[in-house]
Amino acid sequence: MRFYNREKELEQLKKIRERSAQSAQMTVVIGRRRIGKTSLLKKDMEDQLAIYLFIAKKSETLLCQEFVETVKNILSVEIFGEITRFKDFFAWVMDLSKTRNFTLILDEFQEFKLINTSVFSEIQNLWDAGKSESKLNIIFCGSVYSMMKDIFENSKEPLFSRATSKLVIKPFEVEVLKEILSDASPDYTKADLLAFFSMTGGVAKYVENFVSAKALTLESMLEEIFSKNSLFLDEGKNTLIEEFGRDYTTYFSILSLIANSKTSRPEIESVMETSVGPFLEKLENDFSLIKKIRPILSMPTGRTVKYEIVDNFLCFWFRFVFKNFSAVQIGNFEYLKSLVRRDYASFSGKMLERYFLDQYKASEDFNELGTYWERGNTNEIDIVGVNSLEKRVVLAEVKVNRNKIDLTALVKKSTTVVEKLFDYEIEYRGLSLDEM
Length: 436
Known about the structure:
Layout: H1 7-20, E1 25-30, H2 37-44, E2 50-54, H3 60-75, H4 86-96, E3 102-107, H5 112-115, H6 118-130, E4 136-142, H7 145-153, E5 165-168, H8 174-184, H9 190-200, H10 204-212, H11 218-225, H12 235-244, H13 248-259, H14 265-272, H15 277-285, E6 290-293, E7 306-309, H16 312-321, H17 325-329, H18 333-363, E8 368-374, E9 378-387, E10 392-398, H19 407-413, H20 415-420, E11 425-431
Parallel strand pairs: 1-4, 1-5, 2-3, 3-4, 10-11
Antiparallel strand pairs: 6-7, 8-9, 9-10
Helix pairs in contact: 1-2, 4-6, 9-18, 13-16, 16-18
């Protein structure tokens, strides 16, 4: 699959690179696994003098030997003696950067937490001492989000506040998914687009896998997911166990409950029979895997709160794969596919709401955007978009099947919202597959 999108990120990296010719720059690039961070950085390397180093799980000595050879080959330099410590390697690189401008990318940088934690303070000391004379453009990349956040944003850590720039790589937006699907399958249907959005969430690796396998309809995607040796079956575990550490069973249980419609803290705690407040807080703030949802127009500190999984694929995985992992282990893939088919209408309906919310966010037409409900989950409104500047509000009902949209019922459910926004122009909309 060809390289898509990321123009804004490439432009930002270009500006950082240009600044590094005058003064050293330190950039942090983070994002969930499979999102395309490495592909982005390698694309950026195409038109510059750049060195890419991957921090594998091996000894510091072996890493340094590999790194030295790479630098020697790319920069055409020699070194006298042997380097076996990263401290000495980085000191050498900083010295080289006094007379020439180049980019150094350290991928999976968080692995030094397992290899040698003193590396972080050693980099800090060398950076602080040498950056004024350096023209180095150094980029630290990592996919264990919580570790990278701790390394660079924890005030107790040595590299805190040292970064001059930060890029958070997000999934492909809706319009990019449309472009990719159009290139791969020009005759795709709106139902295909919804399945593509629901299963991948715009995560580059999943998009690439489906495109490569020509799995671009719901049925072909299910065949790709639920098959022997499928990448997708263990993906949730592979993506998150390193993030969660020894508490992963508790986190997995919470995420599974949220994915299966137990979205409030009392609902989760009633099933788990224990307090989950600290776990929910970490899932939201440290791991960025869930987010709080409050009814739009409610107080920011209001106690009416639901949680949702941010990532579409993980929402699918925890709902259909993790919950039924015994079927995965015995290879009963037909059962799993039948299960998805049975519940797909409900799942895809929620994903369609998310699709239109993403589309409305991208339009930059609203200063407030969200959903609305009242006590007991009554009077639910799928999308409420408020433009305070123009004094107008959009109230939308989302259904996969346009024939099931009932705007009369939407008007009745909207009474409280309309009363709060009594001087606003109100527009009622029905959104379905047809509007994708």
